[in-house]
Design goal:
Layout (H helix, E strand, L loop, with lengths): L14 H20 L5 H12 L11 H20 L3 H6 L1 H25 L5 H12 L6 H6 L6 H27 L7 H32 L3 H21 L4 H11 L9 H25 L2 H5 L4 H27 L3 H10 L5 H12 L11 H32 L14 E4 L6 H11 L8 E8 L3 H20 L4 E8 L2 H12 L3 E5 L12 H10 L3 E6 L9 E5 L10 H15 L2 E6 L1 H14 L5 E5 L6 H4 L7 E6 L15 H8 L4 E6 L21 H17 L1
Parallel strand pairs: 1-2, 1-4, 2-3, 4-5, 6-7, 6-9, 7-8, 9-10
Antiparallel strand pairs: 5-10
């Protein structure tokens, strides 16, 4: 009978079984509660309640939950700032600032009053509790992506406002908690604390990006980079605690300053999200649930009253903020409802605030935020997440049906890419660039190929290794990749036939490595591709990791806007700029830039674009004076006979050899309207019977312009 007495084995104390139970919950909770449309964050907390000391008491909240709890808390704040699109903040920065400020002030003010007079809490507890009403998490953001309205103005404002609101909330949280860590709470102490925080913030903002850029250039191993990033997160959190503030503010700040160095489409970002979502964050949420005593919530007392006040103040305060923003900028009621839906859900920062307040012990032995608030927070999170999801679902659907300016990022065609690999050192930069140019909504797998001659068995083995490396990189970024070693009697024909057989939209190759001065700059294979393919051809040479690029310069020939592949290459460059968060400077003729600016403002308004007007000729010599080693030069070339071709483009290979051998390069030949005949001259280097005529025509055009 003793063997059947399960209670004698509880709570579980063996580390092996503790970890198994936690992993089983992490696996099962989303599957079960997902059917009930309950957010996963609530499911993990419910699971913690069930197995914790106040539930079935299967586990105790031991030191492992305290350790992983702190790691998970830092991880939540770090990922929240790392996943933010900083360009959304700049796109509608005025409106976003107003929404963020209003979403902080109104819930805070209403909360302080209600907490002091209805709940009869002290000033410090009332302010900290009210700051929880002000924070919000973009739980419903995937809904607007699904309906294709993520580029609407109201969505960008809501995303930008999140940065303002959560930052102010964390500052309040840090100040309140810092007051109870110091010996006194006078104005001099608060002033000193503020000075220390500002100084530390300046140090982190200045040093961490530079350290990160240096490290990523020097080390490209995924495991090493992952450990480095986590080290930076905990260093920032530890330094913030040293000055008397909460570590979550440091973790949040580190995520912001490293945002540009970790593109959303990179394998490193996928690894960070995977580890956090698979282990650290669920462990933390389960630990939060183990703190909650449901008996207090439904056993009478003030628990339900506290939960009701929290819910009403949070929902009402956010609606007032959305209404003020709408009226201030003449927005529609539908935009107001969409902003309200997105800014309504409470999650990460709310949990951070309540746990910090719960851990603060007052001189009389009580907690700054008691068990009533802890239990009420769970109800608050559940209600606001549900309300946010329903409102966002309704308004996003209505926006998609009624708005004429809805542009979906998903493209039915034009996303298929062939990556032709030849050199081991070019595999990683080429694949990473292809991942960054890829539409996030695309489902078409990438295709990596290595072409070898029929009788070269050693080359076939080398090709298998290249493709295995490329597949690992794509898999780390959670992108499907097909890989194939293709046998051919001619290397160029292998690529050409693969492109035509599968109708790929573009081919990405490494720039030819010259073995002698007399050898062609582009190499015989690439010249054959230019002659026989009318699809976009992209040639890559990388001198440093793509995520450490600080600026992109794009040299564009005049009349490029009339080419068939104009929008094709513009989209790819825009995605690179958006992924890196760096400035993209376009150099071209005023007419070309006018068309380009219209398209960018229409489709990629968040990209930090600059426009430098030129005569649309070969600008590589002039650009060499402003391009730094950590800049990426993109050269838009033209096929001979196309409307944007100019004889001055024949000097591109010579100028690259002379000025840009230490720079990262991306040379693009856009799509052509017609396939080039097999006997036609290539695009850049060979002589042409038309060249004297074209050169004379260009010279006459410049002379005539001067005369005018």
């Amino acid at each position: 009978m003793h063997l059947l007495d399960i209670s004698s084995y509880l709570p579980i104390v063996d580390p092996t079984w503790i970890f198994f139970v936690v992993l089983a919950i992490i696996l099962a909770a989303p599957l079960l509660l997902g059917r009930l449309h309950i957010p996963h964050i609530i499911g993990m907390i419910f699971a913690g309640i069930l197995i914790g000391p106040h539930g079935l008491h299967i586990l105790d909240r031991d030191s492992s939950f305290e350790l992983f709890g702190k790691v998970g808390l830092y991880y939540i704040m770090f990922l929240a700032s790392l996943e933010m699109d900083m360009q959304d903040m700049k796109r509608n920065q005025k409106q976003a600032f107003v929404l963020g400020l209003a979403a902080f002030i109104f819930p805070l003010a209403m909360g302080v009053v209600s907490n002091m007079f209805l709940l009869e809490y002290g000033l410090a507890a009332s302010i900290l509790l009210a700051s929880m009403y002000a924070s919000h998490t973009l739980i419903a953001y995937p809904i607007v992506i699904r309906y294709g309205v993520s580029r609407e103005r109201s969505v960008s404002i809501a995303v930008g406002g999140t940065i303002v609101t959560d930052t102010l909330t964390l500052l309040v949280l840090a100040v309140i908690s810092g007051m109870y860590k110091g010996d006194s709470v006078g104005w001099d102490w608060m002033l000193l604390l503020l000075v220390k925080v500002i100084a530390l913030t300046a140090v982190i903002c200045y040093t961490f990006p530079r350290i990160g850029r240096w490290f990523f250039r020097k080390y490209n191993d995924g495991v090493v980079q992952f450990v480095f990033v986590l080290s930076m997160v905990f260093l920032g959190a530890g330094l913030m605690e040293m000055v008397g503030m909460e570590g979550i503010l440091g973790a949040f700040l580190v995520g912001i300053v490293l945002n540009r160095l970790i593109p959303h489409s990179s394998p490193l970002m996928t690894q960070l999200e995977f580890v956090g979502n698979a282990l650290f964050i669920p462990y933390f949420l389960i630990g939060v649930g183990m703190l909650i005593d449901v008996n207090i919530l439904f056993g009478g007392g003030d628990a339900l009253k506290v939960a009701a006040v929290m819910i009403v103040m949070a929902l009402l305060g956010k609606w007032v903020a959305a209404w003020v923003t709408q009226k201030s900028f003449g927005m529609s009621s539908l935009e107001r409802e969409l902003m309200y839906g997105l800014s309504n859900a409470q999650a990460a920062a709310t949990l951070a605030a309540v746990l910090v307040g719960y851990e603060i012990i007052l001189p009389d032995g009580s907690r700054l935020l008691n068990e009533d608030v802890l239990n009420g927070t769970v109800v608050l999170i559940l209600v606001t997440c549900i309300v946010s999801s329903f409102i966002t679902e309704y308004t996003a659907r209505k926006t998609a049906l009624t708005s004429r300016s809805t542009f979906k990022e998903m493209e039915p065609q034009g996303e298929s890419t062939l990556i032709a690999l030849s050199y081991p050192e070019s595999v990683e930069p080429i694949v990473n660039l292809a991942l960054m140019m890829r539409n996030r909504a695309a489902t078409t797998p990438l295709m990596a190929m290595n072409v070898v001659l029929d009788d070269d068995h050693e080359a076939r083995e080398r090709g298998q290794k290249l493709l295995a490396h490329a597949t690992r990189i794509a898999s780390a970024a959670n992108v499907k990749m097909k890989a194939k070693v293709r046998l051919a009697t001619n290397l160029a024909n292998g690529i050409i036939h693969a492109m035509k057989e599968n109708d790929y939209a573009q081919v990405v190759v490494g720039l030819h490595i010259q073995t002698s001065p007399n050898e062609s700059f582009f190499g015989p294979v690439l010249l054959s591709l230019l002659s026989d393919l009318n699809r976009q051809i992209m040639m890559v040479r990388s001198t440093m990791p793509i995520n450490t690029i600080r600026r992109i310069h794009v040299a564009i020939p005049a009349n490029a806007e009339y080419e068939a592949g104009f929008q094709h290459w513009v989209k790819r460059i825009a995605r690179i700029g958006r992924g890196l968060g760096c400035r993209v400077c376009y150099h071209g003729h005023p007419n070309t830039l006018h068309r380009l600016r219209e398209f960018m403002e229409h489709r990629y308004a968040t990209v930090r674009a600059e426009y430098d007007e030129t005569d649309g000729g070969n600008e590589l010599k002039r650009l060499s004076t402003i391009i730094e080693p950590d800049h990426l030069l993109v050269v838009i070339c033209a096929r001979r006979g196309s409307i944007s071709f100019r004889p001055s483009l024949d000097h591109v290979p010579h100028q690259i050899r002379k000025y840009y051998m230490k720079n990262s390069l991306l040379i693009i030949f856009p799509d052509g309207y017609d396939a080039q005949p097999a006997h036609s001259v290539n695009s850049v280097e060979p002589q042409s019977i038309l060249r004297p005529y074209e050169a004379d025509k260009e010279w006459f055009g410049r002379w005539h312009k001067k005369e005018d």
